[in-house]
Amino acid sequence: MKAAIWIVAAALFPAAANVTAQPTFGNPSPTAGSATSQQANAAADVAAYKAVDYVNKGRRGPDLVVIPGEIKSNNATFTQKFGPNNVADYAELELSQANFGVLERSNLGPLVNEISLAYNLGDPDKARQTMQIGKLKTTKWIVKFDILKAEQISEVKQGFDGRHVGSLLGGLIGGVGGHATGTVASSVQTREATGVWLIGMRYKIMDATTTEQVAQGYTEEKMEVGATGTSVMGVSQSAKGGVGLDTMVQRLIQKNVWEIDSKYK
Length: 265
Known about the structure:
This protein is 40% helix and 28% strand. The protein is α/β, with parallel strands linked by helices. Strand 4 and strand 5 form a beta hairpin. Helix 4 crosses helix 9 and helix 7 (163-173) runs antiparallel to helix 8 (175-186).
């Protein structure tokens, strides 16, 4: 009888089995499936977003508000790309994933500026006054994430230019063979460059009522970017890549949220 019911249900609702399937998308690139495509996709997979299995995500965390932190780096490349709101957006996402009660800044409107001012100045009277409004009454924590360091700490370059070796071989060997050998050697060009960044992030948790600091922590990560290139007899190959600044900021937030979730929930 049960089997018959399932057969009828499948006939009436043929698409039901596909309701929970995640959407998939094709690849219109003309190089899809090629060696360069496979290499580029393999590098991209390493840098892709990966959800963190927060240890206490099964337990509801305190209600909190993330306020924009500070970007204390003077590196122009970083400050042009990132602002405090970018960092706070990532923090709201990860704290929600860890099952904290996040009241998003987009729902607070101009109150965000008042809240930020009160807690950055450590003004408990202003904080208490602000926290009596609407949904803010249940807020226990104010959290912010500051970028304390973002700098390129090292860069190494190396390469090979075959023109001088080709001239030397052509002269030593002589004749047609020497000319051919010299031509091939002269065409060889190789290049390789690697740069390493160091990015550090601090988090602060403040009591929503008193503005007093509940906890703080710091973590930093290295970001490596590199490029290689080779050319022989007009045939060239090159590659470049590495984890981007967006990914690095999100990974630092994930590490800090993991610590908040495991230590202070």
